[in-house]
Amino acid sequence: MAHPTLDWIDRELARLSDSGLRRALEPLGSRQGPVVEVRGRRLVNLCSNDYLGLAGDPRVMEAAAAAALAEGAGAGASRLVAGDLPIHGRLEAALAGLHRAEGALLSRAGLHRFRHGDAGALADLLGKSKARRKLVITDAVFSMDGDAAPLAELADACDRHGAMLYVDEAHAVGVLGPTGAGLAEQLGLKHRVDVEMGTLGKALGAFGAYVAGEGRLRELLLSRARTFVFTTALPPAACGAALAALEIVRTEPERRTRLHGLIAQLRAGLLQRGFDVSRVVSPIFPVVLGSEARALAAAAGLRERGFYVRAIRPPTVPRGTSRLRVALTANHEPATLDAFLGALDEVVATLPPPAP
To answer: What residues are paired with 35 via a beta bridge?
Structure first.
């Protein structure tokens, strides 16, 4: 029997539906890949953060299965409580090698916001701060716009004001840099970054996150990072998958080369159509359409034409900037992108004009 004190939920759901902000899960009938099955239809997948196409790579899946069979389905508890499995140490060593750091582990930090990409605003905030210790946190690549942080300018501001610099490379690891270590590597700034965070769940095709830095930082986080102290450790399967993915990143740089060719192709096509993607450095493309209704209609129209692209709406993005978030992987084909651009032309022509 429905509980009457929860009737407010019905009203809130109705409000979200009326405003185009209600969300729903989309069951897949296949694993992640350049083409997925959605409600019985095969659609080109332009939604996934699987940038190198490793989530469905047989080597990565086999490594995940082997690790689960060897070391169990789960870790039991946090590593401080239940002990370290051998695969955790192997993964830490591999990540430290990628980032040329002394240690890597799960962590989280607080955040004080400054204006997007504005190193001057950051310098003003740092100059006014009376904090004993200052930590500046930035994404390397921003997940909804695909642009990069001005790392050199941010590092300058940190140097002037005695602040540490923490860079979240989640959308850059595996994609940017000569070895795939991220934006700091690509810009030659690794020596000026104190802490690097990365994820195993995007270009590496697995699950989990890590922090890389000096050994003394690692030792501090072992005792003080609440998410590390209290969170059950990564399951062996995720570690095994990530280890295999890191080896592929190391030995197959052509995946990044192919991905960047696709990025250049789609950037040129979207710029030609008037979309502001000039600052995009990643596989993430914001096709900004304005209202929630226009973004939802565009996503539906593209689905009818065989393309799986989701509408991104507030509060994920600012009101008035609802969009399609188009994400590429190294396993897409150039001809597929040409077909997508053609379908996008057809769909945009059917949309109501944007609000003034």
So the answer is: 44
- Mean pLDDT, the chain, integer: 92
Residue 66 and residue 214 in one domain: yes
* Closest to 151 (Cα-Cα) out of 131, 128, 169: 169
Q: Answer yes or no: are the C-beta atoms of 86 and 67 closer than 8 Å.
A: no
Domain extent at residue 344: 26-51+253-350
Q: How far apart are CA 307 and CA 231, in angstroms?
A: 38
Whether 221 is covered by a domain: the verdict is yes
Query: Do residue 269 and residue 344 come from a single domain?
Result: yes
Per-residue pLDDT at 256 exceeds 60: yes
User: Which residues does residue 42 pair with via DSSP β-bridges, in sequence order?
Assistant: 37
Look up the pTM and report it.
Answer: 0.90
Q: Are residues 269 and 125 in the same domain?
A: no
**Cβ-contact 120, 261 below 8 angstroms:** no
| Domain end call among 217, 251, 285 | 251
Confidence of residue 112 (pLDDT cuts 50, 70, 90): low
Residues 318 and 213 reside in one and the same domain:
no
Q: How many domains does the chain have?
A: 2
Strands 41-45 and 307-308: parallel
How big is the CA angle at 285 (ends 283 and 289), to the nearest 5 degrees? 165
CATH at 238: 3.40.640.10
Measured on CA atoms in the order 263, 154, 94, 70, is the torsion positive or negative?
Answer: negative
Q: Distance of alpha carbon 275 from its chain centroid, rounded?
A: 22
Q: Judge whether residue 109 has pLDDT over 50.
A: no
Can you read off the two tokens belonging to residue 89? 């140490």
Please check whether residue 166 is in contact with residue 138, taking contact to mean a CB–CB distance below 8 angstroms.
Answer: yes
Q: Say which DSSP state 347 is in.
A: H
